[in-house]
Write a structure and sequence with these properties.
The protein has about 130 residues and is an alpha/beta fold. It contains 4 helices and 6 strands; from the N terminus they run ββααβαβαββ. The strands form 2 sheets. A 4-stranded parallel sheet has the order 5-4-3-6. The protein has a two-stranded antiparallel ribbon with strand order 1-2. A hairpin with a 6-residue loop joins β1 and β2. α2 crosses α3. The longest helix is centred in the last third of the chain and has 14 residues. The protein is globular, with a radius of gyration of 15 Å. The mean pLDDT is about 90.
């Protein structure tokens, strides 16, 4: 990112970099960074602190689910009911690498899943 003129500062939250100048476009297109506000990052960190498996019940576009999967080393299911938003989520997971992230199409009111979860993340206003 430095080669693209991007400058940042690290914060106390693991993995949190605050942009101070530059354009993240090239780094974001390459899948190196995913811009996300502090509130979204805090939600993902709190959800991941409960351990896995974790269900992000309204997951698109996928930033919190991907961060939680990174923090947990996997064991995250990202559920999304909108076909359009599901495509966006799948594309982001593909670009980011999404290790340990399972993307599932379905409605959180009637999830097409078996088994239990240690934590459920439901960011309804985001949906």
């Amino acid at each position: 990112m430095a080669a693209d003129g991007v400058e940042w500062r690290a914060e106390r939250l693991p993995g949190l970099l605050v942009l101070t100048s530059g354009d993240l476009g090239p780094s974001q297109a390459a899948g190196l960074v995913y811009p996300q506000d502090l509130g979204a990052q805090l939600a993902a960190h709190l959800a991941a602190s409960g351990g896995g498996p974790l269900l992000d019940a309204c997951a698109a576009p996928g930033g919190k689910a991907l961060l939680a999967a990174d923090l947990l080393g996997g064991a995250v299911v990202a559920l999304e009911r909108s076909p359009r938003r599901l495509r966006t989520l799948r594309e982001l997971a593909r670009r980011w690498g999404g290790r340990g992230l399972q993307v599932v199409g379905g409605d959180a009111a009637r999830p097409p899943l078996r088994g239990g979860f240690a934590t459920v993340l439901l960011d309804a206003p985001c949906s």
